[in-house]
Specification:
The chain is α+β, with helices and mostly antiparallel strands. The chain has three domains: about 40-105, Alpha-Beta Complex (Type Iii Antifreeze Protein Isoform Hplc 12), CATH 3.90.1210; about 115-250 and about 260-295, no CATH class; about 310-350, no CATH class. About 25% of the residues lie in helices and about 20% in strands. The protein contains nine helices and 14 strands. Strand 12 and strand 13 form a beta hairpin. It is rod-shaped.
């Protein structure tokens, strides 16, 4: 190879190396990287319409990118943090439209629901019951509503005496009566929190009612005496009842917090002596029995008239009684003599108590009437599968 050719190759290599170094130094071979944008600022917004007074569930809110005005509101601390947990179990102070950001002023102050003991008015008691939906206005009764408690029962009447000592079987009638009026619902579904999960179609709904001590015990006693029905009162009556209850919960001018509440209702035959019943029950001098239901259902029973006692003639020899003779004629022979003194005096005591009329058991007024449910309660097929959700 000639020297000129060799020199040309060397020059070409040097020029190529210089061009490569220059290109690398200037970044000609480097790929242009995409410019990274900062992540969008997120905000917590309503996923659907949230109505006033409702408790927010996780499905009611969602996190989405914030608009420029919402970014400024978030920086000023006017909105909740962009996480679903921030709004869960909070109560809406006013209605929030769909996709609106959740402002702090839209919600009630963060606090747990009031405990049961604080919901019961002074002098009242709480009683719980499980009521089928079709006996509780479709299960649509809410906390704060007022209801009348009705008992529907099949009542077995006592046997009717017939001449000759026989008796005819008593009849059975189905009747209904209000056993407690104006009871307030203070809890539902056995939870202090509002429960929004649906129940099975056959599942009962648990309600906790506030009423006076005597009526609470009467409701407990009546649970297996018939079918209990809750009848909600209208809004106008509810306002009057709420006003009266607020006076008891916040007695004006009473520094010691003690209130002498009265349960009497002057225009009601049933509630005219309610204070007396409550006082006697609280002191242990009153026992709930079927006699209370007889009074409420206005049942009447006239016990059979006992037969006139048979006349006996006592024969005495000296100062010793030797027996009795049947019949009422004087001078009867000894052939009619009966048993001696002890047995004769037992017969002379007459028929014992409990001949079908009123009597007492354990100090309570008993009754020959018997109360029972008009039909067997339907079983909850959903509960058997564990999907009822009823606590």
């Amino acid at each position: 190879m000639r020297a000129s050719t060799m020199f040309a190759l060397i020059v070409a290599v040097l020029v190529g190396l210089g061009a490569a170094v220059a290109a690398k130094a200037t970044g000609l071979f480097n790929r242009a990287e995409a410019k990274k944008e900062p992540p969008p600022i997120m905000v917590l917004a309503a996923a659907n319409n949230i109505f006033e007074g409702s408790m927010i569930q996780p499905a009611d809110v969602r996190v989405r990118p914030a608009t420029p005005p919402e970014v400024e509101q978030l920086r000023r601390g006017e909105l909740l943090p962009p996480m679903v947990q921030a709004a869960t179990k909070r109560f809406a102070k006013l209605s929030i439209p769909t996709d609106s950001p959740i402002r702090k002023e839209y919600l009630e102050d963060l606090a747990a629901p009031t405990e049961l003991r604080a919901r019961v008015a002074p002098g009242m008691r709480a009683v719980n019951m499980a009521i089928p939906k079709h006996h509780a206005a479709g299960g649509l009764i809410n906390v704060g509503d007022w209801v009348d408690v009705q008992l529907m029962a099949a009542i077995d009447s006592p046997a009717v005496p017939l001449p000759g000592g026989a008796a005819a079987a008593g009849g059975t009638t189905a009747q209904a009566a209000i056993i407690t009026r104006a009871a307030r619902v203070i809890a539902k579904r056995n939870s202090l929190w509002p429960v929004a999960t649906p129940l099975g179609p056959d599942c009962p709904v648990n309600f906790t009612l506030e009423t006076n001590p005597y009526r609470a015990a009467l409701i407990e006693f009546s649970k297996d005496k018939g079918t209990i029905v809750l009848l909600p009162v209208g809004d106008q009556d509810k306002k009057l009842l709420e006003a009266r209850r607020n006076e008891q919960m916040n007695p004006g001018g009473n520094t010691n917090g003690i209130l002498n509440a009265s349960y009497n209702v002057a225009d009601s035959n049933e509630y005219r002596e309610e204070d007396k019943r409550v006082g006697s029950f609280l002191t242990g001098n009153y026992v709930i029995s079927e006699g209370d239901l007889v009074r409420i259902f206005q049942l009447k029973y006239v016990p059979p008239t006992p037969p006139s006692p048979e006349r006996h003639i006592e024969k005495v020899i000296g100062i010793t009684s030797v027996g009795y003779a049947r019949g009422g004629r004087a001078g009867s022979s000894d052939d009619g003599m009966e048993e001696g003194n002890a047995a004769a005096q037992a017969r002379r005591a007459g028929p014992s108590a409990g001949n079908g009329g009123s009597y007492t058991v354990g100090g309570a007024q008993a009754s020959p009437f018997r109360f029972r449910p008009p039909e067997a309660p339907a079983s909850c097929s959903t509960c058997k599968t564990g999907k009822c959700g009823q606590k």
